[in-house]
Amino acid sequence: MDEKKWYALYTRSKTEKKVYDELVFAGFEAYLPLITRIKQWSDRKKKVIEPLFRSYIFVNIQVRDLYNVLALPGAMRFITFERKAVPIPVEQIEAIRYYLNEKEFVPDDSIQLNEGQLVRVKHGQMEGLIGRLIRYQGKFRLVIRIEAIGKSITLTIPRTLIEPIAE
Predict the structure, then answer these.
(1) Which is the CATH superfamily of the domain at 5-88?
(2) Average pLDDT by stretches of 10, the chain with 167 residues
(3) Between 3.20.20.70, 3.40.190.10, 1.20.120.520, 2.30.30.30, what CATH number should domain 99-164 receive?
(4) Do residues 102 and 160 make contact, with C-beta atoms less than 8 angstroms apart?
(5) Prediction pTM value
(6) End-to-end CA distance of the chain
């Protein structure tokens, strides 16, 4: 029996929530990261919950289930390399979850970091994850970029959780 791995499933435009529901109904473990944004129309503003990555859902499945997932309405294809579905490291899935849930931090001024520097998460759920420091946000938080599914996700993370690493 092969083990389950996370894969990025590409869906038809604006069908992420429907495909997610189909996946769950079919008994597959799926993760659709959602974010609340403020949308501006000419006459009003409204909070809208939408996917963090448009047209992508993450599924935790065995290799033998790849075609069963693709048979679901709205599912288009997996992210592939050399015609094989590419597993997404569980650390990147956890980084996304952390990004959407993280709220608390402990201030620490002692860490000296420069913008553009390569950094690693040294504590917490994302321990070991590597990204690039984009900028400081306030006195105690950093914005770092981490590659996931060939796209960048920007995390705002406490300075105390980061350590510099050599290029």
Answers:
(1) NusG, N-terminal domain (3.30.70.940)
(2) 90 96 97 84 84 92 96 95 91 82 49 79 75 73 68 73 81
(3) 2.30.30.30
(4) no
(5) 0.63
(6) 39
